[in-house]
Amino acid sequence: MATHARVFFLSLLLCLAAMPAAAGSIVVPPGNRNAEQPPIPGGSKSRTRALKTTFESKYAKIYALLKSDDGLRSKIRETAHQYGIDPLHMAGAIVGEHTYNVDAYDRLQTYYVKAVSYFRSSFSFSYDGEDVGDFLEHPEFDRCANASESYALWSCREAVWNDQFRGKRVDGRYYPDNRFSAVFFQPFYAGQTFGLGQLNPLTALQMTDMVHDVSGLPKLDHRRPQDVYRTIMDPDRTLPYVAATLKKSIEAYASIAGFDISDNPGITATLYNVGNPDERARALRKENRRRASQGKRPRLPQENYYGWLVNDRLDELMALFPES
Questions:
Q1: Between helices 55-68 and 87-100, what is the axis angle to 10°?
Q2: Could you read off the pLDDT of 121-146 as tens digits, one per residue?
Q3: pTM of the predicted structure, to 2 decimals
Q4: Structural domain boundaries of the chain?
Q5: Which one, of 157, 159, 230, lies nearest residue 194 by Cα?
Q6: Counting Cβ atoms within 10 Å, is residue 46 exposed (0-12), middle (13-18) or buried (19+)?
Q7: Is the pLDDT reported for residue 193 higher than 80?
């Protein structure tokens, strides 16, 4: 490369790294960046073995549910349109969760039945007898008081948990070295997610303002855990939360990291799987500013094993929504 060209390329990278991300996002093209699927975690493998099935069988089962249920596909399409995203993002997240997390039910009606059962159950969001509402009275959470909406509020609270409580002893009580959602918001067992979208309650609480504004559903409250679980399990209520979660990831990567990921369902599925899109977008922005200072090309967002499957099967998923 000629000297002038190298200087121009370096200047371009520095400009991209410094500019406000939303002003000129780099479009992430469709498809996988990895030629082979990244390693699948051992926990996913062991859960699948315990069910005496395979990843391919689980994929076929959730795909068959989507293919056979015209009403479900219509709901996904309509919800995606409400949130301004391609329905492939929603289909990808649902397929990924049921391939690598849990097995799908054979009929959509089963999810509705389960939703009612959780609404009638008695449980709370708590840890070792401490209700999450009481826990949030700790002065460490005062910095979150001015958060203007649910995503900012619960993201702040999660950050406080990670900084001040996770794996530490506070006021004579030891708090586990585990995710905030696993410790306080999964009353039946840690790592638990439910429903068609396999959302965890903390994610639902984060997204409740957006869903209320866009879809008109009642706002969720951590003091009413049964409402939260019913929403997660009820397909009519949970699909807007799936869409909102994906929308938030797309917005975060555009505004923070400078990448438009709206054409790559494998990347949005990855973020749906791993969570914390703001934090991950900030980490990618930091890395690419460092790379720019070294004259290197920006690193594009990478799919994980879960997102890799979504991109690998994209033709099959597109066949579910041919008119989209």
A1: 140
A2: 667 899 999 999 999 999 999 999 99
A3: 0.87
A4: 19-125+210-217+229-320
A5: 230
A6: exposed
A7: no
